[in-house]
Amino acid sequence: MKIAVLTLGCKVNKYEGDALIFKLRELGYDATDKLEKADAYIINTCAVTNEAERKSRQMMERCRKFNENAKIYVLGCASQNRPVQFEGRNVTYIQGVANKMEIINHLNQQGEKIYDLPSKYEDDLYSAQTLTRAFIKIQEGCNNFCTYCIIPYLRGRSRSRSMVSVISEAQKLPAEVKEIVLVGIDVSSYEQNGKKALIDLLEALDGLNKRLRLSSMEDNLVTEDFVERLSKLKNFCPHFHLSLQSGCDEVLKKMNRKYTTAEFYNTVTLIRKYFKNAGITTDVIVGFPTETESNFAETVEFIKKVQFADLHIFPYSKRDGTVAAKIYKDLPKEVKMKRVAVLEEVKKELKEKFINENSVLKVLIEEEKDGYFQGYSENYIKCYLQGNFKVGDIVTCEIKKPFKDGTLVKEIEKNA
Fold first, then answer.
1. Would you kindly state where each structural domain of the chain is located, as residue ranges?
2. pTM greater than 0.90
């Protein structure tokens, strides 16, 4: 029986989808993550925005074009949020966020089961990694309750995986995996025995001789002690994805983000004190219901002040069940999209400026495509190069010129 596991959304979802594939293969199924003809499809959904939910529903129709008689199983954030949106669509089984592995036990059943969200980390997911970069999930849930975000209601409160379990998975990674990315819904809240422990985990993993990268972090994690200890790690990649969301204090307060722009800027300054060429990237939400033109102008100026290496820009998406949806009136779509367009231009300028500030990069080659070997530098610049290489090589390169969504580079030295 061939089963396609199709994942939408974040890196955590990707990890969980890969874990399902690994388990299905263990049980003798022909499992893939490709959208192609199969006997059954498991759709691992996303609900971070309305558009993400729409794409989750749309995926069912795309599957039916390959096999109109296939069984379809739905799980994840969108079905946790509103299972009714998948009912009556000839879906075999509907499940939510918790106990994702349980879907395998329902492959010959019809129905719906939305499990209660657990209070402790569910350590039943393990993904066999065969690529050059491995994602390892270390944390689940979120306690922040930003007014625009529905994820804490769908994923539950923050809970951390044991350090022993994380290290055990990392030690089992094949030699071809050259980089580990630690992922979670709120990686910054990772703790052990009630204490913040992310830096302890990174120090424990540093001896594996694989590049270490964090998927994202919150401002409150970054202290002098944390960054100083990071700077002493030999394998840490200096890429800091710090979620900003707005560069206006008034909007940040309405979003229930627990920092000011001054505090955020101090964090960036601290990082650059220890990591001169750090790639500092961020997420920005434009068109939050209370955001005025003046507020947006503040955000633009603050983004320029910080000099981010890259931006992920999102128009505000109203999510029923959140505080913002209950108390604020949404802005017109055209206002939001106009502001997105403004920030896209700022993003382009800042990204090119950051690339030009670098000269020599160490690039992990992840694929060969369209005549170029492609991969990322330690500080997360997308690099393209030509030559006699193979996937998995780490190559010291010099920057030549901006190219596509990154830069064209030339080999200086091939590393072990």
1. 2-113, 133-356, 360-415
2. yes
